[in-house]
Amino acid sequence: MARTERPSRTNARDNRRRLSQNFLADPGAARHVVRVSGVGPRDLVVEVGPGEGAITRFLAPAARRVLAYELDPRLAERLAARYRDPERGVRVTRADFTRVRPPREDFAVVGNIPYARTADIVRWCLAAPHLTSATLVTQLEYARKRTGGFGRWSLLTVSTWPEWSWSLAGRIDRHRFRPVPRVDAGLLVLRRRRTPLVDPGRMGGYRRMVELGFGGAGGSLGASLRRAHPARRVDRALEAAGVARGAPVGHVSPDQWLEVFDVLDPRGR
Fold it and tell me: Which long-range contacts (CB under 8 A, 24 or more apart) does 177-185 make?
């Protein structure tokens, strides 16, 4: 009979490195993530990369049901065994989260996500039709970049702002993870707005304006917008939004973009 070899510590370390795994080792921090998510007993939750189950431990009693997706086979098997009892409301699946179909009912996403997959995971969340919120532990720099923390705003945040709010709900010290990463983490929260700030019929026009504005012509928002709109109207829009004529695109806040759009496309918001 062949002997089944147990995974070595070296293999485990290699997997963590390959999968960009840094496990949340502080129960207090894990509890805080779940508290910030606002998950309640009626909610379906998709957990991204549960790892050793630090966050799952607090999600399970808080939510109606948890669908946990773990790519590491060793961790997925271990966590599935822990939550084998269906009454605990947790289903663990070994799978790449970004390749699974989102639930066809309202749901929330919570997770301490692999830093190397942040962009893919956020993209999946924004494209999921029934997602209500996503509470993600990311690199602090990424979370600040998406929420205006450096005094600058990104194309992704501005283009999705009418439908999604982006906020930084705190910082998690890097020493609360194992292995210890090189940087602190941020708690990034995305919430779908119940009422979009731009009418759905106008969203295409809004996004085209944002893409044009971030096009980089002339190094300012005004210079970019003048490629497609009369200069006087652009100047009037910038003035109404309180944006200096030579302001760099990244320094314009999402709310100012909305004001600019209302002047350039004057149909009611």
Answer: 177/22, 177/23, 177/24, 177/25, 178/22, 178/23, 178/25, 179/16, 179/22, 180/22, 181/22, 181/115, 183/139, 183/140, 183/141, 184/140, 185/112, 185/137, 185/138, 185/139, 185/140, 185/143
